[in-house]
Design goal:
Elements (H helix, E strand, L loop, with lengths): L1 H26 L8 H21 L2 H27 L1
Helix pairs in contact: 1-3, 2-3
Length: 86
């Protein structure tokens, strides 16, 4: 039961990360296009961290990396959509 509560709290923070990423993407309009390559690198490395920590079983790092992937990918996707609408 204790593990289930940990997982549910972690999932709640990851879902919160999607909303936070969307909010940050809307309020930060001054981002350079060259900086978006760094977003892709961060997403890739964090995804590797998710897989490794899923195998290892370290919940704290797993959800931390998931949060980073969520916030960064939402920011990158929203920037790409807003750029195409101009």
């Amino acid at each position: 039961m204790n593990e289930l509560i940990k997982i549910l709290v972690g999932v709640c923070f990851v879902v919160l990360g999607f909303f936070l990423g969307n909010f940050l993407a809307k309020i930060t309009k001054d981002e350079l296009n060259s900086g978006q390559n760094w977003f892709k690198i961060i997403i890739f490395l964090s995804s590797i961290g998710v897989i490794v920590n899923l195998i290892i079983g370290n919940d704290i790092l797993l959800f931390s990396f998931l949060f980073i992937v969520a916030v960064t990918s939402i920011s990158l996707i929203t920037k790409r959509i807003s750029k195409n609408q101009r």
